[in-house]
Design brief:
The protein is α/β, with parallel strands linked by helices. Helices cover about 30% and strands about 25% of the residues. The protein has helices at about 5-10, 90-105, 125-130, 145-160, 205-210, 255-265, 290-310, 335-345, 350-370, 395-405, 435, 445-455, and strands at about 20-25, 30-40, 60, 65-70, 75-80, 85, 110-115, 120-125, 165, 170-175, 180-185, 185-190, 195, 220-225, 230-235, 250, 270-275, 280, 315, 320-325, 375-380, 385, 390, 410, 420. The strands form eight sheets. A five-stranded mixed beta sheet has the order 1-20-21-22-24, covered by helices on one side. The chain has a five-stranded mixed beta sheet with strand order 7-5-4-2-9, with helices on one face. Strand 14 and strand 15 (about 230-235) form a beta hairpin. Helix 8 runs antiparallel to helix 9.
Length: about 450
Amino acid sequence: MSKIPRRQLLKTALGASLLGAVRETEAAEGLRIAPFRFDVTPPVGHPLCGGWITPVVDVADALEAVGYVVLGAGAPVVVCAVDWTGILNGAHVKWRSALAAAAGTTPERVAVQCVHQHDAPFVCLRAQELLDAQKAGLVNVDRAFFESCLERGVAAVREAVKKALPLTHVAHAQAEVRQVAGNRRVLLGPDGKVAKMRGSSCRDPELVALPEGLIDPMLKTVAFYSGDKKVLACHYYACHPMSHYGKGHVSSDYPGLARKRRQAVEPGCTQIYFTGGAGNIGAGKYNDGSPEARVALTERIHQAMLASEEALKPVPVSAVTWQTREILPEVNPAFTEATERALLENPNSAPANRIRPAMRLAWIERVAAGVPIVLSALHVNDVTLLHLPAESFVEYQLRAQELAPGRFVAVAAYGDGGTWYIPTREAFPQGGYEVSVANSAMSMDETLSGGIRALVQGA
């Protein structure tokens, strides 16, 4: 496959044009909900985090894809959170297409969001094709494993739909998460540029002592009910979900462990965790990368989940709306096909320094082919569940909430990962790691913000 044929991979709902919006509202009568889950744990030897850290040595705890299908609001809607680092470009479309076929719907009515743990797969099928052409044994993803995950997903969704329950009530609440998140870009030099970054773990006393900076401190929970039975609890929090990683020990890390802890205590309610706009947010202020720190971070997220769920007050579902918006970003001018191909084809470079250019080439081809990113939102009563791409900065999440002050807006980022990091316009002149690996241009700020505005204000 050389370029992604847009119409083959993505049919726009109801004939909407590129960059257009689609909105479909249904009354609440006859609504049903069908939670599902399936295993997505990679085998021993599979690449992790795209192939630039130690591959799978063993499994500390399994990775899952957890989601739900809403039926009765027009064509079915599917929302899924995956314990992977990222799913990019055509791979993301394949995930959405497979789950759509299983649920009896179309790909634009499916949201697939990654949780973004790093001891997990980071997948781009087109990048793998480009790597295969080098005949150098470079691996981003094993296709057989990828396809087996989709097969399990199709089976899980089909089985869940058979057992769908009436969807009668919805509830929302939030609780503050203490001593987890901190902004990574808190130390600027006299030139206004990022001097040092506080990552997911940090042992630099100067960086640890700095304030948290701009974050969203709230963990938000949205729950769905069938009568008086809580069927599903969806948790949203914006922080890079890594405590320690890179040694080949597969783990869903502290958010996944907290989710699993809740699941074990309340097995009749499916627990889902979504990572919000965490592109510039990490746990480094409170995490030194030790095993003990993972235990502490897990406990803090778990306590916030409990507090948020305890505050839930179910109300009858009165209306459900599914809305989409297509955006087509511009490629970051720092990356060109010529420069990235030269990096890919350099036999003297480390594997990571050839794999990343292959992923960027896949993005450049995709933009040239006109294949958009699909933003989406599920509106239920006064709740908006907003699905954003890639590593969106927390500012986009905060903007979404400000744009709809009368609504409860919960944000899941890390959807289609093709564009990788999505800094704000203001962040680009500051530089730093996130800007250096942003596949989209500075104009992405206006493009993404416009899409967010259309979705949250169109409820």
